[in-house]
Design brief:
By secondary structure, this protein is mainly α. The protein is built from 13 helices and no strands.
Length: 307
């Protein structure tokens, strides 16, 4: 077995196991492969191994929470793109651009600026030049979703609504191919992310239309992301729904919506606790915020019992 193939096998194993050992072994295997698969000798094979190295480094970065691994992944993808050009290998070029965008987006989340996120948006848009809906509909939808993620994060940091509007459009495009019937859990994740972009938009705009659309997207997600199937994902979406219901309740002076927000957030808290995740301080503060907003409406009773 070549070192590159060994790296592939170790990466697959690492994806099925906890921890980082298999991924670290895969990194070592790919780096060993690059000693033989040199750019001068076999440029396209070299690019393939650099791309594979980028993938496993990105997975390691996700497990470790390490920006260093993501930086290394970006370097590996950019190396691969020097030989996997659009003219020579358009599909591989597009795939690498998409993966580069994901690594840049992860890096962008860890700093306060926008440069990495802007680079991520550019990489995903480049990928879409070759990954078309007609040619590869599911891959196109995945890239659209990734583009939506980068735009949404960028929009949260920038003033105005343009980036968030673009994020909403990207998610809705992705959902045209990633249907509930075809890929239910991916569909639910995209609905949740669409809800996030709409909720942020709604917070910046007057009226309630965007917030109501966000709540509808979260409820759609909860139709597939059940507490039994994916308790932490369910909790995340419940908490997001609660946030949006609170905004709606405050904006419309609705006690019922604030009560609903209280219930959603408490349900999320309970799910985190049942999975052994300690976010008590965060949720205690959230509940206090909700109760304070309820009291401002002149209510005589708390919207929920004490946790």
């Amino acid at each position: 077995m070549t070192e590159n193939n060994l790296g592939n096998a170790l990466t697959t194993l690492g994806g099925r196991e906890n921890g980082t050992q298999r991924f670290e072994e895969a990194v070592a295997a790919y780096r060993a492969a690059l000693q033989e698969r040199t750019r001068e000798r076999v440029p396209l094979d070299w690019a393939e191994t650099e791309h594979n190295l980028g993938n496993v480094l990105q997975m390691l970065g996700g497990r470790e929470g390490s920006t260093t691994r993501f930086e290394e992944a970006v370097a590996a993808y950019r190396a691969a793109l020097e030989e996997w050009t659009r003219e020579r290998a358009p599909f591989d070029w597009a795939m690498t651009q998409n993966n580069l965008g994901n690594a840049l987006s992860a890096l962008g989340m860890s700093d306060s600026g926008t440069e990495r996120l802007e680079e991520a948006v550019a990489a995903h848009r480049a990928a879409l030049e070759e990954t078309t809906r007609q040619r590869a509909p599911l891959e196109w939808a995945t890239v659209q979703s990734n583009l939506g993620n980068a735009l949404s994060r960028l929009g949260e940091r920038e003033s105005g609504t343009a980036r968030l509007e673009e994020a909403v459009a990207a998610y809705r495009a992705a959902l045209e191919e990633t249907t509930r019937e075809r890929a239910p859990l991916d569909w639910a994740m995209m609905q949740n992310n669409l809800g996030n972009a709409l909720s942020t938009l709604g917070g910046r705009e007057s009226g309630t239309a965007r917030l109501e659309e966000a709540a509808a997207a979260y409820r759609a997600a909860l139709g597939e992301t059940t507490r039994e199937r994916a308790p932490l994902d369910w909790a995340i979406t419940q908490n997001n729904l609660g946030t949006t219901q609170l905004l709606l309740g405050v904006r419309t002076h609705s006690r019922e919506l604030i009560k609903a927000a209280n219930l959603a957030v408490r349900s999320a808290w309970a799910s985190y606790r049942s999975e052994g995740e300690d976010y008590d301080a965060y949720f205690a503060e959230r509940i206090k915020q909700i109760e304070d907003e309820f009291d401002k409406l002149g209510a005589t009773a708390s919207p929920g019992d004490t946790q």
